[in-house]
Specification:
The chain has 161 residues and is α+β, with helices and mostly antiparallel strands. The protein contains six helices and seven strands.
Length: 161
Amino acid sequence: MKKSKLLLSSALMAVALSGCATPPAPMTISDTAAATPQLSTLTKLINDAGLTETLKAPGPYTVFAPTDDAFKAVPAKTLDALSKDKALLISVLTYHVAPGKLSSGEIKNGPITTVQGAPVSLYRSGAFVTVENAVVTTADVDASNGVVHIVDQVLIPPVKK
């Protein structure tokens, strides 16, 4: 009888301790994008532009992340230009990033300035959020250094005159 009590208490202790495992640390924006299958094109372009480490930095940042389907809708000529011009690629990608952490509930209607330097217009009505003409399809993907909002279009910054 003593042996079965000892075995039972050992089993209960093992079950109790297994629940004490440390939860995984939140991922950075860069890691979050890389772990999201529908953001594989964005992840590749972030790497090509050399922005991976920037999006792992403390931030905080708000990223409006276009899906693979959004990139497929961009004209081939534009994608070709981005692949050949790193400065242009960085400009387009940083146009999707705003300084600070802005959850969907904190979005106010009006412009905000992006890391690229140009403003984008935000609009929120209830849970419906847009940035320029892009609709936020998945809001508030939390990251250790900010937040990601997945959008259905690629934002192209205005051409400087």
